[in-house]
Amino acid sequence: MNQKALIYIFTSLLVLMMSWEAQRSMSVAAANLVAIPDEAIRLRILANSDSPKDQWLKREIRDQVNMEITEWVTELESIDDARGVIRTQLDRIEEIVQLELTRIGITDSFTVEFDEVQFPTKLYGNTLYPAGLYEAILITIGEGKGENWWCVLFPPLCFIDFANGDAVEGDGAKEQSSENEDEVEVRFFVFDLFTKVKNIFV
Question: What Pfam families does the record tag this protein with (predicted)?
Fold first, then answer.
């Protein structure tokens, strides 16, 4: 067996793996640089409860409402314009929520408000958002005692799930689990490749 060649190949694979890890860490860090501006309008949805069914319903309503509102605010340049559009479209948001409840066959009551809404403290990446009153659309389903979800409607940042920051467990924990599985898969791949290369030189 050519041990020098084997050591060289193993070192090269190790460098490649470390480079992949560094790039992934840089991507995560870049994502965490996104910050909510002082003038922003949020969307917060409170589920009826933490049951899987109620949490699933919350996400269904979230998707439909977010998709609709994003179309309204994407081209807007000022928060005053965004406020005006949202105020005139509150009936439409109520209609969307009702349509989703009817489609799924659920008779829960709900409310839709656009006001100063109480938010809990949230740590997202390296940024701490203190608890307090923030301008937001608040959708409360049923008793509103379940886990909440929120994002920033204006400026449009709803591609970021601020609700699942580092302070709580939720879908973010699942994403972290998925990342860990990817790391394990890559490491097993490297080990398997190293074993095959070793057999060539044996």
Answer: Spore_II_R
